[in-house]
Protein: Major facilitator superfamily (MFS) profile domain-containing protein
Amino acid sequence: MAVTVVRDVEAGPEASTSGVADEKPSWFTPKRLLVMFCIINMLNYVDRGVIASNGVNGSRGSCSGGTCSSGSGIQGDFNLSNFEDGVLSSAFMVGLLVASPIFASLAKIHNPFRLIGVGLLVWTIATAGCGCAFDFWSITVCRMLVGVGEASFISLAAPFIDDNAPAAQKTAWLAMFYMCIPTGIALGYVYGGLVGGHLHWRAAFWGESILMLPFVILGFVIKPLELKGFTHNKKTKEYGQMLSPELQDETKAQAPVNTALFNCSFFFQLFPDNNGIKQGVPAVVEGLAEKSSLSSFGKKVMIEIHHFGVDMKELLQEKVYVFNVAGYIFYNAVIGAYSYWGPKAGQDIYHMASADLMFGGITIVCGIVGTLAGGFILDKMDSTISNAFKLLSGATFLGAIFCFSAFCFKSLYGFIPFFSVGELLVFATQAPVNYICLHCVKPSLRPLSMAMSTVSIHIFGDVPSSPIVGALQDYLHNWRSTALLLTSVLFIAFGFWFTAIFFRSVDRSNEQSEHDVPATERSNLRPLLDDGNDEAHTSQ
Structure:
């Protein structure tokens, strides 16, 4: 057995890449990958728009002058306060925050494409569960599971797109992907308003689940793809213990136990008629086997925790990454609260007849145009981290001014044009901010970079901002003042991104991860969709 292992490893890169080309899906092109991921991303954010729409979220029952109204939607059926309603909007973030780093770590030992399929399955079941909820706590648990399902996709989709996008259009492709965020939220407003108003708020969640089901099936059926910096072929699994120092130590530590198990079993076969030994040996073997299994599992967990700690330390030492995410946190706090409370604030301040349609229309147009413009402009400027920070800070500063000014108008006709320009500028940041997250770290850290970015912007951004804005409104009872205070937070995001312009930044996206992947597997760093020809790739 030892001779066979040595011969296979000495075969070199050719041995480790055998069969990889055959595994490439012939029908699967980078553009099809982009389209599929964009639709999935849009459905994720349709769900966020749905839960915020007046048709699904509804309003509490109220009494005035001896006359009481029953209320509508989730808030009316479960009699939720504004604070509880805000907590509900952020509940899915709990699952997202816990699961994102876990999926990023699992990507090193399991195929990332299959992990996306698992996450989408959880998402589909959880959204259907939201439609079956019977009280505040049941729908809160389902919303948490929606976050778990979304976590795998959020962490792993962007690196797949970055790997397979044409070199001269990477930011534009990311812009197309992140364009689905405002588009999905806006469609969610409209979809939730129509379905919730004409059918029932529960039907809106069931519809989401049905729409996602085909992509769940694809995630498990089609041949899996690989990320740059990761390998998951049979050779890696078969020889992993010999090639990985940590697993070498583990194998050595298990050797005495395995030897004891073998000796006991061998002795038991030699003396099958010895009744005394027959009774004692199985118990010894069973005890040793259980101890070996527990010890092996514990060491694997500790190894993974150690790797996670090392990666996190390297990530946090990257000042460019830290300042980028810090600005993103304050930015997302505003955008998250806008997306959830926007229709209610607009309806109260400007007495909009159909706030869902109004905010949905503004968001979808400005979101599409702004996000795409941000990506294309950065590509034209020359996609560098420094240029990305310049675009981020400039767009955020001007966007904050226009949005703040919009809420100062008492007329709806003054609000709409200023708020539209403000959202156009604010959404131009989506592609540049994620471009920085992907390119300021080495390839093998990209899933963790995206996961921790997602965790940070939610746990410190829109998770607390929605209930805080709800509590602030409960205290002020003035949506205009609440909106102005919220919008001013965008200037803090501008401060972080403007400061980062002056940092020394290095694009590390093309660094090979020699320290993370065994030498015999480095030839597998190219993703399956890459044909090895940059010019041909760009022409697509």
